[in-house]
Design brief:
The complex is a heterodimer. By secondary structure, chain A is α/β, with parallel strands linked by helices. Chain A has helices at 6-10, 38-51, 61-80, 95-110, 129-138, 158-161, 184-193, 213-216, 241-246, 281-297, 299-318, 347-356, 369-375, 391-408, and strands at residues 19-20, 23-24, 26-27, 89-92, 116-120, 141-145, 166-172, 197-201, 220-224, 235-239, 257-260, 265-267, 323-326, 337-342, 359-360, 362-364, 380-384. The longest helix of chain A is centred in the N-terminal third of the chain and has 20 residues, at 61-80. Chain B has one domain (6-144): Sufe protein. Chain: A (Alpha-Beta Complex), CATH 3.90.1010. Chain B has a three-stranded antiparallel beta sheet, with helices on one face. In chain B, α2 (12-19) crosses α3. The chains are: A alpha/beta, B alpha+beta.
Chain lengths: 409, 150
Amino acid sequence: MTALDPIKIRTEFPTLDQTVNGKPLVYLDNAATSQKPEAVLGALEQYYRRDNANVHRGIHELSRRATIAYEDARAKVAQWINAPEADELVWTRGTTEAINLIATAWGLDNVGEGDEILISTMEHHSNIIPWQLLTRRTGATLRYIEIDEQGRLILDDLPSVLSARTKVVALGHVSNALGTVNPIKDIAAAAHEVGALVVIDGAQGAVHKKVDVQDLGVDCYAFSGHKMCGPTGIGALWARKDLLESMSPYQGGGEMIHFVNRDESTWAKVPHKFEAGTPNIAGAIGFGAAVDFLAGVGMESIAAHERDLLAYAIEQVGSIEGVRIYGPESLDEHSAVVSFTLGDAHPHDISTILDAEGIAVRAGHHCAQLVMKHFGIAATARASFYLYNSKDEVDRLVEGLYRVRGVFG
Amino acid sequence: MEAPQLSSLYQQLILEHYRNPRNKSELEEKTVEIHMANPVCGDEIRLQLRIEDDHIVEAKFVGQGCSISQAAVSMMTTLIQGRAFDEADDLAKRFTEMMHGDEEAARDKALGDLRALQGVSKFPVRIKCALLGFDALQEALKSEIGEKTQ
């Protein structure tokens, strides 16, 4: 494993090379979306400039090229999470659509009154609302695993909330609001003992570390391209093939059919059964290029670099008087996110003052209102790191936070 | 583009209202209550008014949010006590004009402490914070006037 040089890597990200409010940009909002490297921008441009055609339709050369690039990207992204087969990867608009797909297409046929769906209070709204919608339509009950004072799942409660009635266990791999890394493998094993389907929201999971869905032992894994250097509007649902084959379609239209008759039609094979309409071809190709880019840098190097940065950031930010950091104390359970409050300065005010220094952080509830309620706060400021961030940028953040203290101190 | 000065945003008067908000309590004799939130950022208030004969006799609020949203509501409540509906509506319009960069509105003494918020107009993403209270007020006026004409 070679040590990662963020200064060198930064040169591949054109957005990072700019000043904001007269200061060099420090981009620390990576948990919201990552910046895009030249390799991804180039792949998008090549598709639109040279290969643009619809997929699986034409006999002509451009359609052939587009189809090959599109399906190659599927194979790369499937391999990225060690899916047994490329055909188990369904392209979606992102993590949100992937979770809605499984909650709807699998849920409506397999969940009924008296059944239970188990999620946690740590979840992003995208892993709460699809299940709420499903319980409303089926009469099933939504149950929660609570979190402790460090923002970790209270797994001691698992035996009391998991039962033969549990049809789905749906959890985030990594919390976007706190950075908590959940012990998915153990939970999946416990869930399978009662026969529940295990669905993982991997929006923040496949980003920082190599994910192996077979080792995790889960049934479904949903993730997004844009969090990991890929374009927006493209994501994927990986699910076991037998599961996908047993499911009804999610949306109807072109591409997803085999034969169409007046009253009855037959469906295309998995995964195309779930890809109605012209897909986000460029997005899929860009996602494939992002995965190639990250593999080229090396995920082990990225994980080690982020761990270094996180340790430094927690130490430096945490030493500022009035700062409270939320999330697990152990770095082993904490992804590259520092979620914090600073005295009585509201996170929006923190973010505005940092923005004046060219520093981008997120302020708000991070689409995790149940997490905020748990800690009795309305919002946090969140600095989230990625491969191109440096310790110098952590120092800039700390300087910026002293300016916040100057205004609110 | 020249960066707007932070000092124009975080005036002492704003921080003072943020830390010591005026009229921040439940109004037992309220006749109308409007809940207004900015779901994007979580700013949230419940504006409570006691209305008599087309006048705002008393105005109080409860809520939470950033310094700009909470200071603006605090300032607004001090200004609208005892005002007739049309006067309160004029203030809301005047304040909105100031938020959209109208220099003349910003010089209007009728806006009182609210003029300290002029700097917010240079920070487009924060304008909605400053307008939260007046949005609630206008909604309250609309519901009162609507009731009368029914």
